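Annex B.
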Amino acid sequence: MLSYAAQLNRSTVAIYPTDLPSQNLLAPLGSLVVMEDEAAFELATVAACMNGWFYFLLHDLQHWLVDKGLPAHQARTLVLGNLEDCIASARANPHQDLKSMGKAIATPGTFTATGLDVLNHQPGNATWVRPAKWCSMRCSVACRVKAQGRARHAAKSARH
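Pyrroline-5-carboxylate reductase dimerization domain-containing protein: predicted structure tokens.
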């Protein structure tokens, strides 16, 4: 499973089942995440969908800044740069919970805390989980259908 970032060798690549030749082949494309089982791979599929959703969030944030008067290239640089800053900090602190990292920034009385409070009281905040649940259900169904097809094919092959 790959994202467009595979073209840049910066993709997160989920693999299942464990297969050393496939891992060696795909490793140059970015960070490998070897999934333990098919259920975990289904969740990785949902995470890959999130990748596409992030573009729309970033677009909305960029265009809010543009609507307020920033040139598009500066707005894009600020939005992407702040996301990269967040990711860099999270990667540098792999054992620290992401929420606690955010809380360390959104301290009482800051604009960050005030904005977070606004976000937490919006129905849209819960909206991010809804499509993940929907995709997860669809992936489960698709994987079951695929597994049933493999089982039928194996049974048919065994008879011949």
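The mean pLDDT is 85. The longest helix spans residues 129-159. Further annotation is deferred to the next reporting cycle.
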